[in-house]
Amino acid sequence: MAAGGVPVRAARKNAPPREDVLVAAMATIAERGLDGLTMAGLGREVGMSSGHLLYYFRSKDELLLQTLEWSEAELGSARRALLARRGPVAERLQAYVDLYVPTRARDPHWTLWLEVWNRSQNAGPQERDRQAAIEGAWHRDLVALLAEGISRGEFRPVDAERVATRIRALLDGFSIQLAVGLPTLDRTAILAHVREFLTETLSVRP
Hints:
The protein is mainly α. It is about 70% helix and about 0% strand.
């Protein structure tokens, strides 16, 4: 039996596609923030009861993690497309940075990321592994991009793995400040700081 006494077969038959639920969850976060995302409210959006949602996702934590995984899959496709472009590696590195940094304060994707990070303190090993997989995809792509730039002579020889770790730490720090709306640096200033760091770190010495 599904939650609320509804037969499992009927619940599956009447449920919208999983992606519709995740799209609705992300749209709610974008419009009303995380405080506006409740199982009951989301259920009304997609025509399901909160009990049915809990049957499929087990908990709000799982719903948030699956929504993040869906959003990251979308970003991953965009990231792979830009990394596959022809042209200078430095231009693709800037495109990677532009995709990484939030577009604005309370950016819905970063708002979701921060919430999942916060909840990960009590997450199990499987959930942590899924979060690590998301982080790992960004990291591997950055390492590959740096290695390509080095091999082409666009970047000076550096340890791509170590430099990628530092770049992502810099991006995370700035991105969190922007996502939570701290009145310190706007996005333009953040991107300028990152460009300066990349130039100092990667530019070929005369």
